[in-house]
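Problem: given the chain below (468 residues), write out its structure.
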Amino acid sequence: SRIAMSEHWAAFLAKMQAEGLNETAINAFKYNYEKLTSGANLNIPEEAILPVDDLPSYDSLTEENADLLKETVMLKLNGGLGTGMGLEKAKSLLELKDGNTFLDFIAKQVLQMRTAYGVPLAFMLMNSFSTSKDTLDFLSKYDTLAFEGLPLEFVQNKAPKVDASDLSPASWPANPSHEWCPPGHGDLYPAMVGSGALDMLIAKGFKYMFVSNSDNLGATMDLKLLTWFVKSGAPFAMEVAARTDADKKGGHLAKSVATKGLLLREAAQCPEESEDAFQDVTKYKFFNTNNLWVNLPALKAAFDKFGGLLPLPVIKNGKTVDPRDKKSTKVLQLETAMGSAIECFEGAQAILIPRTRFAPVKTTNDMLALMSDAYEVTPDSRMVLKAERNGIPPDVKLDGMYKFVDDMQKLIPNGPPSLINCKKLAIVGKVVLGKGVVFEGTVKVTNASDEWKTLATGTYKDGSVIEL
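Solution.
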């Protein structure tokens, strides 16, 4: 495998330089490729980590210092295309409630916060090549959103795909754009450095950054958290939530036996024999929400310390070079996760937050729940689970035929159903929900026939199985 590095590196380097990638982007890929070809074990075994038992909690915070907003930038990761939901555009352009998209909610949150505190809160997006134009066009109606002297965006890097058979640069002449992939959201850090955004922010006096995913509308700039983060003196902090059974397949927070510092273990880094422990939510109690707080001078210092890169754990994803053609060349996509930077900062912290700060949309199941009356929009434009849900969202399981957003619309041409009192909803087959359908408790609706059938307006109670 080491031979692959000496054999293929020159080809990767030439390919990236020809594509115009900057030095920081090339360093980041080189680090990941070296890890891949070194034959190093990329897994995190059980004996290398300890559970985290006690963390500071958001509920105990009281202090708010609005002056700190002047030194803080709010950043949204907006590189995702929502391909898993059948989209060819930025996922954040999807309409959710009252004609508002994710981007509308985010822009309104920022503008309202500026008004409320009389501080021109700095705001930026990390877009990808595929989301940049659509996003900037859409946001042009918010002409005061960009902060004076700062661009509204910087663009994340791309990385070459690796041929799985010999670890050479993947080649696909039929469509060369398929030879490149996004390097995961861990690319935030090299993209900030390589684009000049980090130096620009520091030069303008910014010290703190709050970063979160654009599909998580619960993740707003929060003064209590900012004040806690600054007072803690930590270089980096992660908002974590309590794992429930629904979260057991996702990554968890842990402590390194070697360094005693915090780290993340993702499913892809878990050896098979540790899987039971990995999924034990009573042992590993917390998961990363991808709401992160970063001290900007500390980030710059970390890059200098590690020689122009952050040594993030590498995640190796097996795919086909053309994602729609399962017979095309097998490739590896090397990715990193931004939360895993927690292990690169001595003294990094984590804080337990309420589930209201975590409402991401990964599937049409999530989206239907969010569109329903189980969630409400607060006066400051946050999307939160209503109080009577006690922190537990409705569990929505739509038939695979509704995986894509335009197919889900066929289910709800009359608007979303009421889910405020629904525990679990399953829909199987070709179903159209009538106007004002109400689901309560656990309900299943099935249509075994091949024709679309409408579920009449009405209230469907706990325990009902409706066969159309």
